[in-house]
Amino acid sequence: MLTIKNYINGELIEPIAKSYIDNYNPATGAVYSLIPDSDERDVQLAVTAATAAFPSWSITPKNERSAILIRIVQLIEKNLEKLAIAESIDNGKPVWLAKMVDIPRAASNFHFYATAILHDATETHTMENTAINYTVRQPIGVAGCISPWNLPLYLFTWKIAPAIASGNCVVAKPSEITPMTAFLLSEICIEAGLPKGVLNIVHGYGHKVGSAITAHPHIPIISFTGGTKTGAEIARVAAPMFKKLSLELGGKNPNIIFADCDFDKMLKTTINSSFSNQGEICLCGSRIFIERSIYEKFKTEFVAQTKKLKVGNPADDTNRLGAIVSKQHMEKILSYIELSKQEGGSILCGGKQALIAGEFEKGWYIEPTIIEGLAYDCRTNQEEIFGPVVTLTPFDTEEEVLKMANSTIYGLAATVWTENLTKAHRVANDLHSGIVWVNCWLLRDLRTPFGGVKSSGVGREGGFEALHFFTEPKNVCIKL
Ligand code: NDP
After folding, report:
1. For the segment 309-346, what is each residue's pLDDT rounded down to a tens digit?
2. 244/316 same-domain check
3. Do 163 and 292 fall into the same domain?
4. How many domains does the chain have?
C-alpha cells in the first residue's frame, strides 16, 4: 500500500509521530493508501525550512523563479494521465473530468503566475516639484496555504503558484481526504529543481495541521479555501495576530433562467452547472429559478436529460458522475434530501444513494437529484449541500427573483440566462455575488478577480489580485 510522505525542506519524510490516516477510494469504499497524521511538530519543521529558504528565494531574480515554475508546468503536463487517475481515485471524480479540467488547470495556474511575474508593474505618484512616490511590492515571508477536497490539485496550485512566484515560501496543507496529487506534486517539485524549503507540504487533519498553520506566529499570511465555518475559525484565531487573510468559502449559487434565453444552450449548460463533479464545485448553481412561462417546459426537459446521466465507475468514460468524496459527505447530502421532503419538496428524479454492482457496491454514489415545491427561504434552499442536488423555483418578475437569489448568507457566483442585453446588465448589477456568468458557466479567465461576498469569503484570488495579496506594498517618498 502506498504511503504518502510530507515534503519538508526539499525531502519526502515521515511524520514525526510516525502515525498514519487511512486514505479511502470513494469509488470502492476501500482503503488504498496511508496519509501522514502530522501535528504541530511537523508544521514547525516546515516553518523552519520555509523561513530559512525565504531570504534567498525572495531575491532570486524573477526570470529564474519563472523558469523553475515553467519546469513544474512541463512535468505536470508530462504526468497528466498519472495525475488524473490519482485525482479520480482519491476524490471519486470521473477520470475524464480530471484529465479535461483539474490537471490542465493546475498546469495553467503555474504557467499563469510564472509568466505574470515577468509583466507585473508598480505605481509612482508624483507631487509636482515636491516629491516622487514609488511603490515597491515585497514578498511577505512564509505563507500558509490550506485547500479543500473538491478540486484538489486545481485549488492547491491556485494558491501555491502565486505565493511562490511572488517570492514567498510556503507551508501548505491539502485536504486530508484528497492528499494524493499534492504528494505527486512534491515529487514533481523535487524533479523540477525547486530549491529546498520554498514549498513544504504537511499532510494531516485540519484540526491538527491546519490549526497549527493558522496559529503559527511566523506565518503572517494565510490563503484558505474551504467551508464557511472553518473560515470563521481561521479568522478568529488569525485576527489578534493581524495576519493577512484570503478566505474563499462556501456558496449557494442561484441560476436564473429568463423565458427569453437560448433554451437549448441554457439546458445543456445547466446540466453541467448542476451536476459537474457530482455537484461538488463551490460554483455549481444549486438553486435554479425559472421564469414561470417556461417552467413546465424546462422541468420536463431538464428532468428527462438528468435521468440520462450515468453514475458509476469514475474510470469509465461513459459515466457523467463518479463517486461522492466520502461516506460522511454522502450521508450529509442524503440528510439534506430527507430534509427537503420534510420541508414539503417533491423529488422529481434521483433522491437516493446510487447502488453500483460488483467491485463498486461499497462505493459512495448519489443519483443526480432535482427537487421542486420548496419555499425559497427554507433550509434546503439556504444551506450549502455541495452535492448533485438542485431545487427548481418558478418566478414572475425580476424583482422577485433578485429577492430570492440574494436571500442567502452566501454570495459566491450566479448565472443569468437571457438574450436581452439590458436585462443581463441590470440583473448582473443587482446580484449580491462575486462572480456573475451571463449565458455561460465556469468560463474562467485567470486574470479576473475571483472570490465571494457576504459569507462566501474575504478577499480575491486570481490575476494580479493574488500577486498583490502575496506581497506587501511599500511607499517610498523622495523629496525632489
Ligand atoms: P473544510 O472547511 O472542512 O476544509 C478545508 C481545509 O481546511 C481542509 O484542508 C481542512 O482539513 C482544513 N481545516 C479544517 N479545519 C481546520 C482548522 N480548524 N484550521 C485550519 N484548517 C482547517 O472544507 P471542505 O474540505 O469540506 O471543502 C468543501 C467546502 O469548500 C465547501 O463549503 C465549498 O463551498 C468550499 N469551497 C469554496 C471554494 C471557493 O473558491 N470559494 C472552492 C471550493 C470549495 P481536513 O480536510 O483535514 O479537515
Report:
1. 999 999 999 999 999 999 999 999 999 999 999 999 99
2. no
3. no
4. 2
pLDDT (tens digit per residue) in 395-432: 999 999 999 999 999 999 999 999 999 999 999 999 99
Let me know: does 353 contact 334? Beta carbons within 8 Å: yes
Residue 349 domain-assigned (yes or no): yes
Residue 416 Cα to ligand 1 middle (Å):
28
Residues 291 and 158 in one domain: no
User: Within this chain, do residues 47 and 77 fall inside the same structural domain, yes or no?
Assistant: yes
**Which of 282, 444, 460 for a ligand 1 pocket mutation test, highest count of atoms within 8 Å of Cβ?**
282
Instruction: Quote the ligand 1 centre to 147 CA distance (angstroms).
Output: 6
Task: Report yes or no on 413 lying in a domain.
Answer: yes
- Residues 245, 258, single domain; the answer is no
Q: How far is the CA of 472 from the centre of ligand 1 (A)?
A: 26
Residue owning the nearest CA to atom 21 of ligand 1: 210
Which residue has the least CA distance to atom 25 on ligand 1? Answer: 148
Residue 105 domain flag? yes
Does 145 lie in the same domain as 101?
yes
